[in-house]
Amino acid sequence: MTQPHEHYYVPAQSKWPIIATLGMGTSVYGLATWFNDMSAQRADSNGPLIFSVGGLFLAYMLFGWFGAVIKESRAGLYSAQMDRSFRWGMSWFIFSEVMFFAAFFGALFYVRTFAGPWLGGDGAKGVANMLWPNFEYVWPLLQTPDPKLFPAPKEVIDPWHLPLLNTVLLVSSSVTLTIAHHALKHGKRALLKAWLALTIVLGVTFLGFQAVEYVEAYRELGLTLGSGIYGSTFFMLTGFHGAHVTLGTVMLAVMLVRILRGHFDAEHQFGFEAASWYWHFVDVVWIALFVFVYVL
């Protein structure tokens, strides 16, 4: 690696922001179409195809854009000020993710604390007699106000089996990643590779168990996106978290490839640190999910 650039590096005009915009817009539109057609029980939905096209755009953007950033970094074009900018940028990105999940947790809290009891007739805003006279609110909502429109699930997922196992897996992955980070700081590259690879294995295992859990929920428990507010909040929170675990696993896999190619040392390791921050954030979100979605 050459000596760091003395001044703030300003890259040339790039196509990647435009491709990112196209990919994100297409993916969100495809996902919304997919969910709407699913709720309408349409079997000929184009949502999955549109979502996949958007995903390919995003994959192409990520590969190309981050590849360009890595080349610039390896060429020594980044100064200390640029490093601080990257750190602030990643910090604000994680903060935006905190707000993203806060919105869904807020919706869950509002339903459980206010809207649900009101529909059941509790409090000054109770409207049970106006809408569903026989509805009694109990969380988790296994008896929906309108069972014909929103068939209720048979039962909820037991938190002390797969969810608990997944909690152990993710907490363990934070420990293994921290050990890998310390190995990088002390130049122990063999340990770094081993512990980082183990972290990736734990992340993939988590995703596998979550897929098993989803199959069980749909096929055996009747717990779906269309099974009332409990089903929708459950799958929105756990599903988006699963997407974040997938992204974090990909990030760690890229870090492993870079480490195998000799990248990073005790002084230049922000790419690894950024991926680590993201992974620890995802782990903290899962602990909150386990407590507020599965247990309480």
Structure report:
This protein starts with 15 loop residues before the first helix and ends with a helix. It folds into two domains: 78 residues, Orthogonal Bundle (Helix Hairpins), CATH 1.10.287.70; 205 residues, Cytochrome c oxidase, subunit III, four-helix bundle (Four Helix Bundle (Hemerythrin (Met), subunit A), Up-down Bundle), CATH 1.20.120.80. The radius of gyration is 23 Å and the shape is globular. Helix content is 70%, strand content 0%. It is built from seven helices and no strands. By secondary structure, the protein is mostly helical. 22% of the residues are buried.
Q: Give the oligomer, counting copies of the same chain as homo and different chains as hetero.
A: single chain
CATH superfamily of the largest domain: Cytochrome c oxidase, subunit III, four-helix bundle
Rg, rounded, reads 23 Å
User: Judging from the principal axes of the Cα atoms, what is the shape?
Assistant: globular
User: Could you say what the CATH architecture of the largest domain is?
Assistant: Up-down Bundle
Counting DSSP E segments of at least 2 residues, the number of strands comes to: 0
Strand-and-helix sequence, N→C?
Answer: HHHHHHH
Question: Which structural category fits the helices and strands?
Answer: mainly alpha
Number of domains: 2
What is the CATH class name of the largest domain?
Mainly Alpha
How much of the residues is beta strand, in percent?
under 5%
Helices and strands in order:
Layout: H1 16-39, H2 47-74, H3 80-119, H4 162-185, H5 189-221, H6 228-260, H7 270-295
Helix pairs in contact: 1-2, 3-6, 3-7, 4-5, 4-7, 5-6, 6-7
